[in-house]
Design a protein that fits this description.
The protein is α+β, with helices and mostly antiparallel strands. Helix content is 50%, strand content 21%. The protein has a three-stranded antiparallel beta sheet with strand order 1-2-3. Helix 2 packs antiparallel against helix 3.
Length: 126
């Protein structure tokens, strides 16, 4: 009976020691998921901008399409953070669209946030 009594509370102490590590891992997984979702959205927005430029050959339309494709981000990336190069799309040339965006962190436990970049390229149509 004495042996059992001397181990009372051991599980609670072990749990108290492991809990901060588990919580840090959980928050890290949440932050990574948040950043990964934003990166996928930016890449899709850049792809839409490149596609629009390859078809319409109008830079402003391409930037607007890229901005609207990133609508799930809050706040939406500004037109100033979207670049299309080259500005003219000749048949057979490749146009590249780049979207830059600052993603703030949920908790700030691993830093204030990240600046992510989505980039896509497409060949201009005829």
């Amino acid at each position: 009976m004495r042996l059992l009594r001397s181990e009372r509370g051991a599980a609670a102490v072990e749990f108290a020691l492991v809990l901060p590590i588990l919580l840090a891992m959980l928050v890290g997984i949440m932050e990574f998921g948040h950043y990964y979702n934003a990166q996928l959205t930016l890449t899709n927005a850049a792809r839409e901008g490149a596609r629009s430029m390859a078809i319409t050959k109008v830079v402003d339309t391409a930037k607007t399409q890229a901005q609207s494709a990133a609508g799930s981000l809050s706040p939406v990336p500004t037109i100033a953070n979207i670049s299309v190069s080259p500005a003219t799309c000749t048949s057979g040339a490749t146009v590249t669209t780049t979207v830059k965006y600052y993603v703030p962190a949920f908790t700030g436990l691993y830093g204030p946030g990240l600046t992510l970049t989505g980039k896509a390229a497409m060949r201009c149509g005829g």
